[in-house]
Design goal:
Blueprint lengths: L1 H39 L4 H14 L7 H14 L5 H20 L2
Helix pairs in contact: 1-2, 1-4
């Protein structure tokens, strides 16, 4: 019976690890994307870092990245810039790939 319990514990640990990794990837992706958007908004240095953290926090509203896109679209509109949704999504995809690469190296 202890074999089954050990196996169950191993699966639970694996699941927990995968969930933590998914959360870390989403957070890193949001930060990278936020830094890119900050650059488009003309922010740099500490202002860009603070903006990127706002983007990371916006990703906690709901699963997926729609909350992030809503936030950055509102900021882009407020600045009077025009960045196509497809360009934002492409950059978000690039940030996701980069985040996965960065975290797989750690």
């Amino acid at each position: 019976m202890s074999q089954f319990k050990d196996r169950e514990n191993a699966f639970e640990k694996k699941y927990a690890h995968e969930e933590e990794l998914d959360f870390a990837v989403e957070a890193r992706c949001s930060k990278l994307f936020g830094l890119w958007v900050a650059e488009q908004l003309g922010l740099s240095g500490a202002e860009a870092d603070a903006y990127a953290m706002e983007v990371v926090e916006s990703n906690l509203e709901e699963p997926g990245f729609e909350d992030v896109l809503r936030k950055v679209n509102a900021d882009i509109d407020e600045k009077g810039l025009e960045i196509a949704d497809e360009d934002l999504r492409m950059e978000l995809d690039r940030a996701l790939i980069e985040a996965k690469k960065q975290l797989s190296n750690t």
